[in-house]
Design goal:
Shape: globular
Largest sheet: 5 strands, parallel
Number of helices: 7
Structural class: alpha/beta
Oligomer: single chain
Distance between the termini: 20 Å
Bound molecules: 2-amino-2-deoxy-6-O-phosphono-alpha-D-glucopyranose
Order of helices and strands: EEHEHEEEHEHHEEHEHE
Length: 211
């Protein structure tokens, strides 16, 4: 039986293991999207949501027909003096990750990624989210240093929106180890304000690394 408690107004549910975490998160997501004419999700990458995406992928494709997925982040690379979004076909990219783990498997749902191009004009991605009706549910995850809603490293302002950031050394090291690939130098990430404007946020945490 999951243990439930309220901590600083946040509902905390402690489950037995990673499998139960993924199952519970999937149950919540599927319940929320069910019967909605329109439902916008803000979604993360990393190792934590893989179990959740695996369970969602096994559902009927029709379950997601009214969903739009907004991704929290994407890597950027430096080419000479120019910075640009990483190619979506690069195996290091979050485009690749999301397509492999979810989008290709649930029937090519509507989805958006923040890009270097749209971050040049501050607020473009946030405006797109607002124009689409805002985020109904944000599935959040976090890195070992607490960075969340994408790449909002410690010290990020609470009113931050989607923008270019330099990946910090700790995250670069951790992500290279987890993915066995070299972590790109930059990222485009939604901000703390972008995430906190969601109507609801689920934060997933698993394992000793996050304790
Ligand atoms: C990356 C992503 C974040 C994610 C974090 C956690 O840095 N940009 O969106 O929350 O990884 O990853 P993991 O779940 O593998 O610890």
């Amino acid at each position: 039986m999951p243990k439930k408690r309220i901590f600083n107004k946040v509902k905390v549910i402690v489950v037995r293991d990673y499998h139960e975490l993924s199952q519970l998160a999937a149950k919540i997501v599927l319940k929320k999207i069910s019967g909605k004419n329109r439902f916008n999700l803000l979604v993360p990458t990393g190792t934590t949501p893989i179990g959740l995406y695996e369970i969602l992928s096994q559902r009927k494709k029709s379950a997601f027909k009214n969903c739009t997925f907004f991704n929290m982040d994407e890597y950027c690379v430096k080419k000479g003096r120019k910075i640009e979004s990483i190619s979506p076909t690069n195996h290091n990219s979050y485009h690749y990750y999301m397509h492999e783990n979810l989008f290709n498997r649930i029937g090519q749902v509507k989805h958006f990624f923040p890009t270097y191009e749209n971050a040049k004009e501050p607020g473009t991605y946030d405006k797109l989210i607002k124009k689409s009706g805002g985020i109904d549910l944000c599935i959040n995850a976090f890195g070992e240093d607490g960075h969340n809603f994408g790449f909002n490293f410690p010290g990020t302002k609470f009113d931050s929106i989607t923008r270019l950031v330099k990946i910090n050394d700790n995250t670069s090291r951790v992500n290279s180890k987890l993915t066995k690939m070299k972590t790109p130098e930059y990222g485009i990430t939604t901000g703390l304000k972008t995430g906190m404007e969601a109507k609801e946020v689920i934060l997933l945490a698993s394992g000793k690394r996050k304790a």
